[in-house]
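Hello again, I could really use a second opinion on something today. Take your time with it, there's no hurry, and the full record follows here:

___
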Amino acid sequence: MDVRKVVIPVAGWGTRSLPATKNVPKEILPVFRKPSIQYIVEEAIASGLSDVVFVNTQNKRIIEDHFDHNLALEQLLERKGLTALLNEVRSVARMANIIVVRQKEQLGLGHAVMCAKEVIKDEPFAVMVGDDLMFNRNPGINQLIQVYKNERMPVVGVMEVPRDKVSRYGIIDAEEFAPGLYRIRGVEEKPAVDKAPSRLALVGRYVLTPEIFTHLDTVSADGAGEIQLTDALQALARKNRLLAVKVHGQRFDVGDWVDYLTANIYFALQDENLRYDLIDRLRELIPPAR
């Protein structure tokens, strides 16, 4: 069965981005000309996924509203003859089939995935974490889907991170059986630098099968009261049922201020109308070397 659905958890508080996210969801913070969540959905659509399942909370309906029609705005743009903008706004509303399920309590990524169980039913599905933006001609989640089609096993996306940053991520213990493909022996959530089994970190892209729900059902909450997806992945790894693919492309963690600001500059530099003026302004801001 092909992968058609993607679960995108968006119910988190966005505490890493406060105070900007006090009243605006982090997923709606703009990266250049689009809210960050739109890049995630565009990656999913470009990878052949048709049903987008937002796991959301009642306080963040603005996310799903972004992918709906705004008739008053569309009528205004039409009256003003702003055809290009009108088409762009309408294309967002027509981008995907949006399904929304509620996460009534924010109890971790594993819990968020469990909330989508009744929508997923017995199908394989993707999970994309909205903090991680990835850009490549071959979209990040599609790289995992291709491996799933060949291997018919759950697969996670990984990237190599600096040794001093492994404590920020879930880190895999794995053996490489083909270039960029790994058979996972175990997953450790935010290990100490001297205890990390590798520098291969989970980066918010997964293709899973319904068996993950069986494992999530048995996962105990951690010290913060959250159900961690990595604990269920660990159970799959113990059964030799979990693969990893080293994802290629440019990645930005929009919950990290340096990455968020860099992502804005990265996209602005792609715009020929802005590139050279932006470079000139950045040069003015950077003090000359002494």
The mean pLDDT is 91.
